[in-house]
Write a structure and sequence with these properties.
With about 425 residues, this protein is α/β, with parallel strands linked by helices. The chain has helices spanning about 20-25, 35-50, 65-75, 85-90, 110-115, 125-140, 180-190, 210-230, 255-275, 285-290, 325-330, 420-425, and strands at about 5, 10-15, 15-20, 30-35, 55-60, 75-80, 100, 120-125, 145-150, 155, 160-165, 175, 195-200, 235-240, 280-285, 295-305, 310-315, 335, 345-350, 360-370, 375-380, 400-405, 410-415. It folds into 2 domains: about 5-35 and about 290-425, Lyase, Ornithine Decarboxylase, Chain A, domain 1, CATH 2.40.37; about 35-290, TIM Barrel. Strand 13 (about 195-200), helix 8 (about 210-230) and strand 14 (about 235-240) form a beta-alpha-beta unit. The protein binds ligand LLP. Specifically catalyzes the decarboxylation of meso-diaminopimelate (meso-DAP) to L-lysine.
Length: about 425
């Protein structure tokens, strides 16, 4: 969905810029992010959910100050899950009331900074945390708006969901075992906390809306229980993120308006059935906004043809800039972008330069037999969870993020240097 075209001599251009020029100016590997596409996705989510709902972009997918400004300008809110993300959000000028703080083990320092800054909500994840946030807010003389994160008993996988009676994971407070209801009781007793709603996040890279429907139903069930027990109607529901994107042509993602309609309908239906006023809905897409907006640009180095097997195509990055293939067996596609080629396709595996055989970027791909060192390859859909999960393994220098817009490219996150690495090494 990026504005990708072929130039007259067969190279690819993105947002009106020839990838060869981008590589020349900024070097490789590099993440090339289409700002226009990113902003358009923000707007699509904003418009789909309308005035009665809030869209919180999940910063863990990818966060930088420029991205925070885009979010702000396009009317989105921001979900942060660490002090580092909070610092970036505030440094870029995101108003604190548009920030939500998440995490299953927030430190006192993170909580303190968030309350002090005045974040719009803290999503509580454990009994201990209820007490800690209450204590910190009280000390600061604040009444902190909070949501309670519940585990609804839906485990979402890529193409399916399994309803489990018992949740066995570290996040949230269980609905089935009564922990969530107990958390509500405790929060309501604490003056320094203002309980505004219930939060549920069921997983990531999900295509099937059925898991969200079960989640919505169970969250509304808790709201009903809260009304019956305490006589109050909580004003907000957050159904989390997790909407899948297309990594390969087989993936068939839902559009924001379909998602908004489906979630809105189910929440409305369930609330009407329970006699509850429909609460304000929020969602937290990360991947669905950032993922499709960037590709990674690599330069081909060594080629190794293994007779009867495949050709190993080594690029100048690897698992340090995209851990997802090694970690999740994630699938990606790849294309030669610096020139056209009519050569026969060969079965290839695009690998990195790291010292282990699991260092694979694209497991199976067809690339032209005339591929040569110096050619540029692009791996699409790397805007989410690639730069944000990048490492310095083998003292790799994390690649820059280059934003492209109206035929111009600029660095929004610069490439690391060896000096950066040595600066941390104080010994
Ligand atoms: N909200 C909460 C509370 C979350 O934990 C997450 C993701 C999101 C929202 C955003 O989910 P998204 O819309 O991006 O799927 N590293 C993994 C993904 C981990 C997601 C963790 N939580 C990957 O590369 O696939």
């Amino acid at each position: 969905s990026q504005t990708v075209e072929r130039t007259a001599d067969g190279a690819v251009s993105v947002g009106g810029l020839d990838v060869r020029r981008i590589a020349e100016e900024f070097g490789t590997p590099a993440y090339v992010m289409d700002e226009t596409d990113f902003r358009a996705r923000c707007r699509a989510w904003r418009d789909a959910f309308g005035q009665d709902a809030d869209v919180f972009y999940a910063g863990k997918a990818f966060l930088s100050r420029a991205v925070v400004r885009w979010l702000y300008e396009e009317g989105l809110n921001l979900d942060v899950c660490s002090g580092g993300e909070l610092a970036t959000a505030l440094a870029a000028g995101m108003p604190a009331e548009r920030i939500a703080l998440h995490g299953n083990n927030k430190s006192n320092d993170e909580i303190h900074r968030a309350v002090e800054a005045g974040v719009g909500r803290i999503v509580l994840d454990s009994f201990q945390e209820i007490a800690r946030v209450a204590h910190i807010a009280q000390r600061l003389g604040r009444r902190q708006p909070v949501q309670i994160r519940v585990t609804v008993g839906v485990e979402a996988h890529t193409h399916e969901f399994i309803a489990t009676a018992h949740e066995d994971q570290k996040f949230g407070l269980g609905l089935a075992d009564g922990s969530a209801a107990e958390a509500v009781r405790r929060v309501l007793m604490l003056d320094s906390l203002e309980l505004v709603g219930i939060h549920s996040h069921i997983g990531s890279q999900i295509f099937d809306m059925a898991g969200f429907e079960v989640s919505a139903r169970r969250v509304v069930g808790l709201l009903t229980q809260v009304r019956d027990e305490h006589g109050i109607e909580l004003p907000e529901i957050d159904l989390g993120g997790g909407l899948g994107i297309a990594y390969t042509p087989e993936d068939d993602p839902r559009e924001p308006h379909e998602i908004a309609k489906s979630l809105g309908d189910i929440v409305t239906r369930e609330c009407e059935a329970a006699g509850l006023a429909v609460p304000r809905l929020s969602v937290e897409p990360g991947r669905a906004i950032a993922g499709p907006t960037a590709f990674t640009l690599y330069e081909v180095g060594t080629l190794k043809e293994l007779e009867g097997l495949r050709t190993y195509v080594s690029v100048d990055g690897g698992m340090s800039d995209n851990i997802r293939t090694a970690l999740y067996d994630a699938e990606y596609s790849v294309a030669l972008v610096s020139r056209a080629s009519e050569a026969e396709p060969m079965l290839s595996r695009v690998v990195g330069k790291h010292c282990e055989s699991g260092d694979i970027v694209v497991r199976d791909a067809f690339l032209p037999t005339d591929l040569a060192p110096g050619d540029l390859l692009a791996v699409p859909a790397t805007g989410a969870y690639c730069r944000s999960m990048a490492s310095n393994y083998n003292h790799a220098l994390r690649p820059p993020v280059i934003a492209v817009r109206d035929g111009e490219a600029r660095t929004i996150l610069r490439r690391e240097t060896e000096e950066d690495l040595l600066r941390l090494d104080v010994g």
